[in-house]
Fold each of these.
Amino acid sequence: MIKIFGAAVLFTASYFIGSTILSTYIMRVNQLTEYSKFLSEIMLSLEYRPQDISQILSEAADKMSQPFKDTIKQIAKCSFYYSRLSEIWKTTFLTNKKQFAVNNDEMSLIASTGDVFSEIQKEKIINGLKLNLMRIEDLIKQAQADKKNKGQLYKRLSLLGGAALIIIII
Amino acid sequence: MQMFDSIIDLLPESIKNALEGITNINSVEEIRLRVNRPIELITFEKKFFLDKTAKKEDILHILNMGARNSLFAREEEIRNGFITVKGGSRIGFTGQAVRLDGNVKSLCNFNSLNIRFAREIKGCASFILPYIHNKDKLLSCLFIAPPGAGKTTLLRDLTRLISNGFDGTQGIKTGLIDERGEIAACLEGIPQLDIGLRTDVLDNFPKAQGVMLLIRTMSPEVIITDEIGGESDYEALIQAASCGVKIIASAHGECIEELLSKAYINKIIKHRIFDRYLFIQRSNNILKIKKIYSSSLKEVDVF
């Protein structure tokens, strides 16, 4: 009886571990996709409704989910008090890094987006954002491939590991 | 003091520290920064340099703080060489032109900067009031003074007085076209300075378009604007005058000859748009009337 109960617990645990690993990959894709939508939103605002960056960011953040929402709102608030938006952007994203599912390369790209706002001309900012968006789209493709290959693989491996443990225990 | 604090907030720490020892800090009118040269302070009493050299980063810091990290949203202002910051103070600057098809599109590589403090002195226009009325009727007036004499401060207080009413006269519907955002010092559309209860403001609005918009939408009895002199200003004023609206404006100048030498102001004078031309001067930090001319350029007694 105890063995059957232990086996069930092990199987459930291995299933959840596998699912958690897979969901990290799914979250990574979702976050990158959300960020790309955010960049598009910012570009549209800049193009058609040029207003203060704090306002643009706040409005765009309202449409986002966590952890982007709080991080971007934090940047918008700080933009009143500090002169270098690129530094605020980088620092805020890197400080909140643990809340994101993206990897280091992806985070460093997201954290460097703020650099484009140091330009004075709107067109240059939009071009900078377009470049960022293209790179994010490449990263999304990579993340989707990772989700498909690695995510499923880790899920299967954890289930197999669980099954192996159950066999050993029994 | 609040105005001064709002400017101090824009400065980098190193400049704030350099200003700490200044005793007559409240009388500062301008702070001038030039890259790799000492920072200059202009007060009511004197001009002097601080023991601190301005860096390129200092200028960029002040501009970024002034524009709330949104210089891109101020392209028009940058092209004109100044931005208006919270509280109505103006930051003028020079730098390298970004040209497109032969026109200056923007500025970059800023090398000089001038912070001009906006001042709200309630009651400073009271001495003008007897000269701008004729049998209880407001007259169209042009105030003329050299740059930095206090025209904007005077116009602001005059707007407040005309709008609220004074000496028993009732206030009137006042339209203010604040093209440079210095008179009302609007922040997100809301005037930061007292411009009266009956004043409708067009903030950062070109005078030419603003005049007709105000007449159509708000039916003002008087339109107040600053620093006229261009062709479009002339056309706008003609339109306003033809609608029977009184106009109060300011222009740069020191004497009537100088005024007449300016092509479009000359035209404005010939059209007799203004009933009075008031030459203002500042001596010992007090605004005074130097001379007054009627619409036909006859000198009017200053009592």
Amino acid sequence: MEKVKTLDDLKKLKEQLKSTIELREKSNNPESHVQVKVAMATCGIASGAREIMSFFMDELRKRNIDAIVSQTGCMGYCYAEPTIELTIPGHEPVVYGNVTKAKADEIIEKHIKNGILVDGIIPVTYQNINKK
Amino acid sequence: MMKYKMHVLVCGGTGCKSSDSDMIAHNLRTAIDQKGLTEEVQVVMSGCFGFCEKGPIVKILPDNTFYVHVTPSDTTEIVEEHLVKGRRVERLLYKDPQRDEIISDSKHMGFYKKQVRIALRNCGFIDPESINEAIARDAYQALGKVLKEMTPQQVAEEIKKSGLRGRGGAGFPTGLKWEIASKSPGPEKYVVCNADEGDPGAFMDRSILEGDPHSVLEAMAICGYCIGASNGLIYIRAEYPLAIERLKIAINQAREYGLLGKNIFGTDFSFDIELKYGAGAFVCGEETALIHSMEGQRGEPTFKPPFPAVAGYKMKPTNVNNVETYANIPVIIMNGAEWFASYGTEKSKGTKVFALAGKINNVGLIEVPMGTKLKDVIYDIGGGIKGNKKFKAVQIGGPSGGFLTEKHLETEIDYESLTAAGSMMGSGGMIVMDDSDCMVAMAKFYLDFTVEESCGKCSPCRIGNKRLNEILEKIAQGKGTIEDLELLRNLGNVIKDTSLCMLGGSSPNPVLSTLDHFYDEYLAHVKDHKCPAGQCKALMQYIILPENCVGCTACARNCPVNAITGERKKPHVIDQAICIKCGACVEKCKFNAVVVQ
């Protein structure tokens, strides 16, 4: 272990280590972050949801966007997997179906960065008991 | 660096560990490995989450799922359902007892909503055995800041401005204490951490040391810089093996990084910390007794002055603070005195950690801003009284504290208000009682403890408490008189006034405050020879109501001493001469025929 010789060393070390607990820090107030929930039931995983989830995690970090990427159960849109639910703070959640890496890239660039909805949204036709 | 999609925090506090949380973490890791998720899910043994009633606890992030009463055999299901398929395991979620609804997310639980976690900021959040996680949460930056940017006087000023007062019980202003020690002349000084937590039912300090040891180490170094000491000593009881283990790990890690040792942060300030073990004597929580014990002498208090700040360990200037006090220091330095002082009341700033125990739904460790109302702690955070019984009293401050009653529920928790109400802040034990608790018996319980723990050096404490205890025993036996009540009060006051240290000086408090608030209950014992709560065995009888008894023989068959007789299908009778008042008959009777009188 290298010695911490100055306060700047410590601050640098903290910056390096920050990512190890970043997920926990964000979970402390999830409402203030962009949330991407990836449906990860059997159908989702079979259609490549795992790679899409990793893609979101990697790309959001690379593009310096503060977001929580988490997995969730089957959303019921098995015909449109991989499916993601995107929540921008202060907005209603939006569900995208058939998310490929290219689509994910478009979602990040347009929707997450600029708030422009892109093609592929699945209209919400149900009520969630959590919303009552 | 590995990046995890999910973090699984398993409580690694003493409470959850004794319920097999090590095995839970091990099983989780194995199951995660089998599913090939080792690179996606991190399992962390964290410090105490505080919700000990529901332990062992497993918390999954980022979705904040809070699993309670988890057993090692639940782990496969958690991994297969939650981690692989993203479905919460419903049966392990927390169910709000008052509203009868499942709450999956810890952020929405009544237990956490009113809490403000400053001293416990990292408990249940980081792995206490990893200095890196502590550093990621700003550990040692406050130390760096004081060494680079502040003079020792400024540090003392800042702590004074924050309004922080000693969390061990007496509530002496911490900044002032540091200032006095810093002004005491001498090249050799000591910083002592009092981790001799001895109140029955209290585990605040243990949880901080187990969950966030670096916060205490850092604060001790800051104190060392402030008062001009290069040696730190932590006096910890040997009954805290996990806290000791984690402290050792933390001290070694801090040394490896050079955050303890010589020339910290490249300055000429050097500071190191050593552990001193106590044998668990209550009196050694008193600072002069603690110092004598560390010196290898008998753990007995001596008269103050001289105060330790002038002549303490090895007769050198010594600053003694308790664990929770230290845990507040780094955040005060980082966020500023004003920030800290924005919490709390006029004279009591910040927060206080309490160990909630007794007849309350949510037993556990909580931290609330000073000024929080007692009823909010008991009903909102504590979830009310167990079994929907009636609240009777709450005992705050351990064997030195007093009882508060229903009329005090609106009391705001701070040093002054608690003292004015006849109790004291103490170190933070909070024991709740319902109407089945006899106040004479409770007073006796605490006095038994004090009599056992009295060091015997001064006679008011050694002899006086013994006599108090005998009178209480006499009352509990139904042999007390009205004069005895007066004697209790007089003797109690004499012990308070004349004892050498605060152990004796506060030991009659439970007796005196129950006399104040529950005088009727004492009267019932001495005049009517009855125990209204039905707890003093000598004063109660179990009898069978003939009109309710159907003669099922269940009581007779379960009586361990064969005190119950009667023919089948005819009312039974208890022979009072044989009955040992164990209560087995009440439990077995399905017809409410056995009653206590």
